[in-house]
Design a protein that fits this description.
There is one protein chain. With 200 residues, the chain is an alpha+beta fold. It has one domain (2-195). Helix content is 19%, strand content 38%. Strands 1, 2, 3, 4, 5, 6, 7, 8, 9 and 10 form a ten-stranded antiparallel sheet that branches. The termini are far apart.
């Protein structure tokens, strides 16, 4: 399904989160789960001797550092009931990872969103535009070289568009995907920050 692939870059980082969670939970000293109005888990805080993990479904454009496209609607859940926004923070000594991701939908064409977000992203630096058939495969996370520069990977061809700006350690991403019926698009706003002794 198209929307499942929309924010694959942020989900890749979330997989790193899961691994870290498993490691830290083994030594957990304190776990605090806050419930939402319907009794669902809304925020989980884990404190350990080596660091902490904080996962929340509450994320907004202020957390991502980008405005919401005018008239866009926030997607609350997918067809299987999965959440469409997340705010994940992990800290362990000198290492830190933060991923904020929110999905929206708009009746406007992808071209209009590209124009709008290209202008909004300029404040963070040079905007990289990548094209792909599936989100998460068009850009490099850069473990294969020492460069901190973001790059497009593959043949840079496809209907899905990813606008990225920043460095491998501090990225703002807008992932735009046309809907199957050709009317409007789904899009995701993502901010990824990585801190550690080897990051710039």
């Amino acid at each position: 399904m198209q929307t499942r692939n929309l924010m694959a870059n942020s989900y890749f980082a979330a997989m790193l989160t899961v691994i870290a969670v498993l490691l830290l939970v083994l030594a957990a000293c304190s776990i605090n789960v806050k419930k939402g109005e319907q009794g669902e888990d809304k925020r989980v805080d884990i404190q350990t001797p080596v660091g902490g993990i904080h996962v929340s479904k509450d994320a907004d454009e202020g957390d991502v550092g980008l405005p919401v496209y005018p008239g866009a609607r926030k997607k609350e859940k997918d067809d299987e009931g999965g959440e469409k926004s997340a705010n994940v923070n992990i800290s362990a000594g000198k290492f830190g990872l933060r991923v904020v991701a929110i999905e929206y939908e708009s009746n406007d064409s992808p071209d209009k969103l590209v124009s709008y977000y290209r202008d909004q992203l300029k404040k963070y630096g040079k905007v990289l535009e990548c094209h792909t058939t599936r989100h998460g495969q068009s850009t490099s996370t850069g473990d294969d070289d020492d460069s901190n520069e973001l790059k497009c990977e593959g043949d840079n061809n496809g209907k899905n568009i990813e606008l990225k700006v920043g460095t491998k350690q501090n990225q703002h991403i807008v992932a735009i995907e046309p809907t199957k019926n050709g009317k409007g698009c789904d899009f995701g706003l993502v901010h990824v920050q990585i801190q550690g002794k080897d990051t710039v």
